[in-house]
Amino acid sequence: MIIGVPKEIHPGEQRVALIPASVDRLVKMGAQITVESGIGTVIGFSDDEYKKSGAAVQSDRDSLLATSDIILRLRKPPLEEIKQLKKGCIHISFLDPFNEKVLVDELAQNHISAISVEMIPRTTKAQKMDALSSQANLAGYVTVILAAERLNKIFPMLMTPAGTITPVRVFVIGAGVAGLQAIATAKRLGARVEAFDTRPVVEEQVKSLGAKFVKIDLGETGQTKDGYAKALTPEQLEKQRQEMVKVCSQSDVVITTAQLFGRKAPIVLTKDMVERMKPGSIIVDMAVESGGNVEGSKVNEEVIVNGVRVIGLGNLPGRVAFHASQMYSSNLHNLVEEYWNKDTRTFTLNLEDEIIKGCLVTHEGKIVNEQLKT
């Protein structure tokens, strides 16, 4: 089987789907790898490095798409490229299938077996393939670095002959993968950190990182079988906001990471709440690309609301593209390896396998994922 890896063409995207180290491991399994010329240049990997790892380098993108049995990429494919893909091929990337119905229909109609990496189940076995978590981890780190660079204060406490500087206060809303990394990074920089999550089960994790867990009694809450926070009722959201405004008004930095899988992100900070924060404070809305947690935040913009800077920059993992590529590439390698038949040197789509059932979106001309059928 030929595994093809085209360059990412989304504006501003610097991450790559496969780095030379992963190419080397796949080639040793018996895979034939073809990458598009220049695929890794932006993060420092030359075509020669890919060749040394065992890949063929192809300058004709159309030919690569048409002849590959498996396509590995990071972003969803442009609609116009789907017809160029080899009928029956396997396409693996982020797809955002709940919000991309036309794209999913097109993949099905062209008989593409499409795997959506963000739908890989959060199980122990699938952890090494969990690209959503690997990229969220880095995004959480980046949110803190962005805030630290823009804040007009330093994060740690300093005791000097000129006086004592108190540590900044950071409030992280949402303690999933991204939130926990944001907490850890802020603590490393010396901040005083508080965090909130609708799932009481994460309190121990927050405390283990040295942060204070903010308790708000919202009644019955919880998480899905995959570990995602369940959506709150309008009444619960309002109560949450009333309690959080007290913490926000005392914070120098607020980082919001609340996202609902496959759905629009909830508004957790209203304009009124933002206006009650101290002038000069920073908010980083990590969910801006899925609707935003902060009223008034804008994708790829930084806006000032009553002296508070609201950062809504997208593609946060792409700001640390080298390591984001390294982690994503490893996720893809682990996925391919798990279902690789070394005897036949083919990728086997076991439709009864729990991981494949969870992330396979289209197959043999149909939408096969149960979550997308409902």
| Uncertain residue ranges | none
Q: Give the name of the CATH architecture of the largest domain.
A: 3-Layer(aba) Sandwich
Level-1 CATH class name of the largest domain: Alpha Beta
- Give the overall shape: globular
Helix content, binned percent: 25-40%
Measured by DSSP, the beta-strand proportion falls in: 15-25%
Task: Compute the number of structural domains.
Answer: 2
Name of the CATH homologous superfamily of the largest domain: NAD(P)-binding Rossmann-like Domain
If helices are DSSP runs of H or I spanning 4 or more residues, what is the number of helices? 13
Q: Looking at the chains present, what oligomeric state does this protein adopt?
A: single chain
Structure classification: alpha/beta
Question: Strand order, biggest sheet?
Answer: 3-2-1-4-5-6-18-19
The total count of strands amounts to 19
- Radius of gyration equals 22 Å
C-alpha termini separation: 34 Å
At CATH level 3, the topology of the largest domain is Rossmann fold
> Which sheet architecture does the biggest sheet show?
8 strands, mixed
Describe this structure as you would to a colleague:
It is a single chain. This protein has 2 domains: 166 residues, 3-Layer(aba) Sandwich (Rossmann fold), CATH 3.40.50.720; 180 residues, Rossmann fold, CATH 3.40.50. It has 13 helices and 19 strands. Helix 6 packs parallel to helix 7 and helix 6 runs antiparallel to helix 11. The longest helix has 20 residues. The radius of gyration is 22 Å and the shape is globular. The relative contact order is 0.15.
